[in-house]
Amino acid sequence: MSHEPPASDGVHAAIWLRSSYSGGQGDCVEVADGIPAFVPVRDSKRPAGPVIRFGPDAWRAFVAHLG
Length: 67
What we know:
Protein name: DUF397 domain-containing protein
Shape: globular
Number of helices: 1
Organism: Streptomyces caeni
Number of domains: 1
Strand content: 25-35%
Helix content: 10-25%
Largest sheet: 5 strands, antiparallel
Strand order of the largest sheet: 1-5-4-3-2
InterPro entries: DUF397
Radius of gyration: 12 Å
Mean pLDDT: 80
Low-confidence stretches: 1-8
Distance between the termini: 22 Å
Structural class: alpha+beta
């Protein structure tokens, strides 16, 4: 896991997705899709501020644990 990926890695131009479970309250995280090397995650209230990157295997394990 790392913070603040460089602008050249496509994260800043990515399309960010927010869970439908957030209910529009603004207290949620967003995940960018379509970047095969890692899964970027950010705080929806701070779209310009740090991005945490998870490896694909770590992200799959996290999501599987939620279900």
